[in-house]
Amino acid sequence: MSSSTWLLLLHSLPRWIISLLECLIAWDKVCISKQDGGLGVKPISVQNACLMLKLLHRLHHPAGSSWATWAHRHVDVHTLEGDVQGTHWDAICSLLPAYRQITRVAVHDRVAIAFWEDCWSGDAPLCSSFPVLYSHILNHGATL
Questions:
Q1: How far does CA 95 lie from the centroid of its chain?
Q2: Does one domain contain both 29 and 56?
Q3: Does residue 110 share a domain with residue 47?
Q4: pLDDT of 115 strictly over 70
Q5: Which residue, 107, 111, 7, is CA-closest to 57?
Q6: Between residues 22 and 88, which one has the greater pLDDT?
Q7: Measured between alpha carbons, how far is residue 57 from residues 29, 35, 44, 87, 128 in Å?
Q8: What is the DSSP string of 10-61?
Q9: CA–CA distance from 144 to each of 45, 51, 87, 106 (Å)?
Q10: Cβ(33)–Cβ(40) under 8 Å?
Q11: Which residues, if any, are the signal sequence (predicted)?
Q12: Residues of the domain holding 117
């Protein structure tokens, strides 16, 4: 992994840095595929979000990750609430709804499932399928 990719994985880039880079670089030309005459570079904001989602995925599949093991001791993985703070953590938390939309869980795989928020029955989480019922829930983030 290159050092620039590693930095994108470690840090959520502030919007002003992304804007500055977008102003300094003709992204519409740089991001064109190599076959079409561009450099094939991914937009930095998309790359940053994807790498942050990778960290979020690592929290839910912690095998071999010291960081995920540490995070499990400090936060509830289903709600990401706990004693971890900072802009980096806020960026990871903001991606939790997107992560839940693009992943599926199975009841039989011995991991706790966020009953209302995870997609485990059908194409949408129960909180989206039954919003009125969900509005009466006292324990958001309840797990199976």
A1: 4
A2: yes
A3: no
A4: yes
A5: 111
A6: 88
A7: 31, 32, 20, 18, 22
A8: H-PPPHHHHHHHHHHS-HHHHTS-GGGTS--PPPHHHHHHHHHHHHHHHHHS
A9: 35, 28, 30, 11
A10: yes
A11: 1-19
A12: 105-144
Q: Which residues contact 27 (CB under 8 A, 6 or more apart)?
A: 41, 43, 44
Region 43-54: what's the mean pLDDT?
84
Which two three-digit tokens encode residue 132?
């009125």
pTM: 0.60
Same domain, 92 and 77: yes
1 falls in which pLDDT band (50, 70, 90)? Answer: low
CB 72 within 8 A of CB 62: yes
Tokens 């992994």 belong to which residue? Answer: 1
* 115: amino acid identity, one letter: F
- Measured between alpha carbons, how far is 144 from 78 in angstroms, rounded to an integer? 11
For residue 110, the model assigns a pLDDT of 54
pLDDT at 107 over 80: no
